[in-house]
Amino acid sequence: MPQLVRRQRRRLNAEINVVPYIDVMLVLLVIFMITAPLITAGIQVDLPTAEAEPMSPEQSTPFIVSINSDGQYYLEIGSSAGRPEPLSREELLDTVLTELETSPESPILINGDKSVPYGDVVELMDQLRQVAGIENVGLMTQQPN
After folding, report:
1. What are the structural domain ranges in the chain?
2. Is this prediction's pTM over 0.70?
3. 108 φ, ψ to 5°?
4. In terms of Cα–Cα distance, which of 96, 103, 101, 107 is closest to 130?
5. Which of 9, 44, 87, 93 is most open to solvent, judged by the fewest CB atoms within 10 Å of its CB?
6. Domain spanning 63-139: CATH 3.30.420.270
7. DSSP code of 103?
8. What stretch of H or E contains 139?
9. First vs last Cα of the chain: how many Å apart?
10. More confident site: 12 or 54
């Protein structure tokens, strides 16, 4: 009598293979590590040189008001991502007022290009004092070589 051969059914494997996902994540990590230093944050400003004390790391995140050589205003709050958009002086003052409501202890620093007329920087400081009530404004400089 012929013997009946009984076939054994293969059981399905219901596991997820994560190796391809790990490969993709490692490739993305390498891409971000290469491109991150190439992204320049902030506005290109040619700062005047002066001997000055650096800010202490205990201070809260400053608001940096930048004026480039074309006279355009920019506002950077902490390490905001991306390149900030140019603002008019009125928009800048409104934005500073709004941001000071959330963090009133933050210092304000003016990052003015050395080719910007001194009067423009003083006018901005005066308007910050009059409109926002800010009495303490710092000027950013570059350390001499």
Report:
1. 63-139
2. no
3. -115, 125
4. 96
5. 9
6. yes
7. -
8. strand 137-139
9. 100
10. 12
